[in-house]
């Protein structure tokens, strides 16, 4: 498993890699994780059940990603491949530089390769155009591609110009035993809305900043609990200061995954305001804790939960407020623990990491009988990528 994103960094990709690796080990596979150094965490670390993680002595330069050099990390990567006797290299996330480099290097070493895409990209802006071109080259030699939703599959097929027959949909999952509902001894006259995400533009932090004073004015008994950090936190703090909402908005800062359940069980409603999302594991965790979920109708989110467990809104303040008003009206009645456990069991039956691991294992079994793909002719696309880069820099 190779990606720039892994623990101690917190996120959906990190959790996916860890949980999938643990379940594959339970199925009898040997799994090694390769990522870059995080602060003083460098070298080889052994995690739960003997999972070995290589934190390569390479520092990230932007957004937790290493500098794209293509060749500089070959000696380290080759040493790990030979030492651990690796058969399949599985890269994660289109954002990850290390993932793309490892897929190219593995192809040169005649290894089987798999790529999992966790995100959605556009087609018009410069960043998306360049990323999509790199993805076309990177995936041209991959044996199989996995996407976390059908929307994500359509997006990846168009961006990377690959055959849809070479792409499988395997969703994320949740360890439901870690997200059990909890009876809350709270004021029945208070409604708590929980937000748990990175406070960045893509996660809808600007919508949240507009929504908080609008909803607090409509409902004097509503309060917000916000877990997460990011550049938009300052905007939320300014809104609280401007409207004197410090007693109704609690900013918890960065929350570790082990603390997510404790934060979720503080609330009645979970709010997700993402502007783009391939799957969104946070809404599954919230539903598993018995919360009513209100989310934007974007990306692969409509595929994730049954309609009776989620209210979908357009990514604007008016639509989100409308759906939240309905959810608040429903939550004014005391929620029985029995009903919350029924929701928990339903979510637990929908998504399990054991099922994800078995379906991923099936992909490994299929590609094990294939020949590694060659990039001899396809590497000519690099000339096209270089031309695009030069043209973009000339235009800037």
Detailed description of the structure:
The protein has 396 residues and is of the alpha/beta class. The chain folds into 2 domains: 12-173 and 355-395, Rossmann fold (3-Layer(aba) Sandwich), CATH 3.40.50; 176-350, Rossmann fold, CATH 3.40.50. The chain contains 13 helices and 13 strands. The protein has helices spanning 12-26, 74-84, 97-108, 126-139, 150-160, 205-218, 233-243, 260-264, 281-288, 317-331, 337-350, 353-368, 381-395, and strands spanning 32-36, 43-46, 52-56, 88-92, 112-117, 144-147, 167-169, 191-196, 222-227, 249-253, 269-272, 292-296, 310-313. The protein has a 6-stranded parallel β-sheet with strand order 10-9-8-11-12-13, sandwiched between helices. It has a 4-stranded parallel β-sheet with strand order 4-5-6-7, with helices on both faces. Strands 1-3-2 form a 3-stranded mixed β-sheet, with no helix packed on it. Helix 6 runs parallel beside helix 7 (233-243). The longest helix is centred in the last third of the chain and has 16 residues, at 353-368. The protein starts with 11 loop residues before the first helix and ends with a helix. Keywords: Glycosyltransferase, GPI-anchor biosynthesis, Transferase. One of its GO terms (molecular function) is phosphatidylinositol N-acetylglucosaminyltransferase activity. Residues 36-125 form the PIGA GPI anchor biosynthesis domain. One of its GO terms (biological process) is GPI anchor biosynthetic process. Its EC number is 2.4.1.198.
